[in-house]
């Protein structure tokens, strides 16, 4: 009698650096991933969510063009030999019955097998999917979909199945869920597992957030830890045209254990991750779980589309089954060093700019930004040295090098793509000037040391000519209004000069193009509004605008050792200061004294306001317990009221905030993430009165 053949298959997932509406590039990357998967022996390849148009099209999804161009790309994919002998799972928008859906399209051997619409849409935080798509309202139901003529002309099909179904092959079964569905309580993978589906895939569009990856990986593991199965996770990786960095980490899990994992951060555009899996281990795992068997026997089964195709390989005994492996996680400092750096690289190479210009004050924030550009240069040149043709071409194009020139080292690349400028004034110290120059030398940037006093004096003289009044700093006897105005003049002059230099320095150096101006305000300063509107926080983009001061200081300490920029250690040790007021023997301006609160306190306020969703009164109640050893109820009440006063008084600044890398889930970013009014009653009369009453009651009970 013949022995039963093992059911071993090779499966592929991928991370693609897609770009919204870049149909040529997106299709090329999809094709490249398919051929790489084929080369590795894969029988199935899953790609990221909405990979053909790019996930970040936003309101462009409302345009018929976007759907039409996605079909055109799919037609090209079906017309060639790309899908021959490999099942391809492609993400794109589809209109069915006049309704727009976020879909997975399963194609094999130049035909469409199934279109599976998303059941649960992401609609919180940075996500607005219900603005563009509708969730499929008919679980476990399948309808007929009439194909567009441009597809029918290629496949000779007129209709295909559309709905919540899975695929049954000659030797296995496969179903899918999409991104957000993994995170839902009643996730589709549960019903798929109870229906006996062995392979479950997830084409996702998930962005980076500090300390978030473990949550995602644990959900992927748990998807098959209880119900068994093989789970493939695909994701975009890169900046596809907005504030988010999609952080890859394509991976494959079997029965709750990771057997393959891709990189979270990288400049390469296509990464394919494969695993060889034994489907019989899924059957064995589930068969030993009697409670699951009872639920599976009682469940309504998933509709199955029969496909005459072998999912498994023909020589199972010659295939080495992938073993469980430990999950690789980066530290938060490594995440900061790599995520924003890759985002900066994508933005630079896709913007048409020839470099970045950074006002480098020698303080923690601008030094962090300089270090990130240095990290960007290190990552790009490392990829080029490893033979990445795209990285090599991008470096030569941006740096304006000849085709036959060798790829420069990281510091040499920094000299061509980063210009730093110390915009000093009479209020600047020798210490910050020295730190700025030292760090510029370590990173390799082209550095300028500029005095802005003549420009500031000209503006003040102009004002005096108009009003015949001369404002003074507070240390010289001036009022708070005069003091703030004189600081703002310096700050805004720096912004104007930065854009002038960014536009003209390439011309000065005999090069083409323009520089993008980098901003350096951190997330806590944005929350408190501790910045001048239209100062150096106003720039083209800001890689640290979503990162807290505490995390940046930890990054500086890490970068001093691991990035090769030792001066970052002295930057971190220095007290933060704006250096906008005159230095006196008895007075040196510092950020925390200016703000009336510490950066650590700001981090607490920010997390309670956004993540815990607490208003003034509930925040006071929470801190009354958490800070009971740090002050009296009256002192805690004063702190909370001070924060909400400045937060609300300065909220208008968020409407003009420079687009920033999203890294923190308490970000006050006004454009997409944190939607609030920008005209408040800053006295908060009702709320503050309640806080005072609670504080008085708490004082009496002490």
UniProtKB/TrEMBL annotation:
Biological processes per GO annotation: NAD+ biosynthetic process
EC number: 6.3.5.1
Associated pathway: Cofactor biosynthesis; NAD(+) biosynthesis; NAD(+) from deamido-NAD(+) (L-Gln route): step 1/1
Cellular component GO terms held in the UniProt record: cytoplasm
Ligase is among the record's keywords: yes
Keyword Ribonucleoprotein: no
Chemical reaction(s) catalysed: deamido-NAD(+) + L-glutamine + ATP + H2O = L-glutamate + AMP + diphosphate + NAD(+) + H(+)
Domain CN hydrolase: 9-279
EC class: ligase
Domain of life (superkingdom): Eukaryota
InterPro entries in the cross-refs: C-N_Hydrolase, C-N_Hydrolase_sf, Gln-dep_NAD_synthase, NAD/GMP_synthase, NAD_synthase, Rossmann-like_a/b/a_fold
One Pfam entry name: NAD_synthase
Keywords: ATP-binding, Ligase, NAD, Nucleotide-binding
Any GO MF annotation of the entry: glutaminase activity
SUPFAM superfamilies: Adenine nucleotide alpha hydrolases-like (SSF52402), Carbon-nitrogen hydrolase (SSF56317)
UniProt record similarity statement: In the C-terminal section; belongs to the NAD synthetase family.
PANTHER family cross-referenced by the UniProt entry: GLUTAMINE-DEPENDENT NAD(+) SYNTHETASE (PTHR23090:SF9), NH 3 /GLUTAMINE-DEPENDENT NAD + SYNTHETASE (PTHR23090)
Protein name (Swiss-Prot/TrEMBL): Glutamine-dependent NAD(+) synthetase
